[in-house]
Amino acid sequence: MTMGLTSTLRHAMTVRATFKATLVALALTLPAQAQNDKMTPIAIPAQPAAIELGTGPLPDAKVPESWHSQYGSLFARNVTVATLTPFLPDPAKATGAAVVVAPGGGFRTLSMSNEGWDVAKALADKGVAAFVLKYRLNQTPADMQAFEQSMREMFSGAARPARPKPDDMIAAIAPQIADARAAFALIRRRAAEWRVDPDRIGMVGFSAGAMLTMATAVAGQDAKPAFIGNIYGPLAAMTVPADAPPLFVGLAADDPLFGNTGFGLIENWRAAKRPVEFHLFEQGGHGFGMYQKETTSTGWFDAFTRWIAMHGYLKPKG
């Protein structure tokens, strides 16, 4: 079923019905064992080679990109220009499949190590070309203390938010959707160079990145991921297109954001008779990503790669 852009974006935005209430906590993407770790400002670090996506600078952005460390990981903030970083497998191992990796951070930060580069490296080791999407972010104060204070202030008033209107939700994520679509377009343009099958490109996102993944999956035919992964993103009910891609979901039951909000998304995918696999881990909290923890949530990546293997993406087509 082909849907108009406006209607599909409206469907996608139902995934974000809890966005205002969870924005601050998403920005922190806390692993349970390190909730008190301090954000420490750092110089912009050396990074794997990235490619600008050509979606332009974030409109009206005045605060430049900055980085900080936390939980032994690296986070980007105030990203104003979107980029894509390729992590290509050894040609001898390449399967032709690819995955766009969307880190989380409440659309205010990006967990570049834990939910970006580390995921991409692990996928490349499996023979899957991986591309970390550093999408544009909502602006935050340049000063770290002011940023932390703004988060506290927002969180103090987040418990009773007004339900966002669909048009407001669409506008709130429009730049990120544009960045994701541009990422798919770039990979398909350079598919031969990167040994990627244009029809075998999936997407996996974490927290806010999972919201972006769900939106990208139903926002139009130009991106159209072959498969999608929603890792500790919201599972709010949504209208599922008839041609929706296979969906993998990983969530911890003790996730303070989404562990007790129902599983409408899973039910909707099943009702639409589209493939879905759901892992509800007993423990893990929110933001576990590639952190090694004493919980079974650490096994999400192995489960995800077994799932894409079941769908034929860990071996060359044909």
UniProtKB/TrEMBL annotation:
Organism: Niveispirillum cyanobacteriorum
Classification of source organism: Bacteria, Pseudomonadati, Pseudomonadota, Alphaproteobacteria, Rhodospirillales
MF terms in GO: hydrolase activity
Top-level taxon of origin: Bacteria
Stored Gene3D superfamilies: alpha/beta hydrolase (3.40.50.1820)
Keywords per UniProt: Hydrolase, Plasmid, Signal
Keyword Hydrolase attached: yes
Protein's name according to its UniProt entry: Esterase
SUPFAM superfamilies on file: alpha/beta-Hydrolases
Domain Dienelactone hydrolase: 92-294
Signal peptide feature range: 1-34
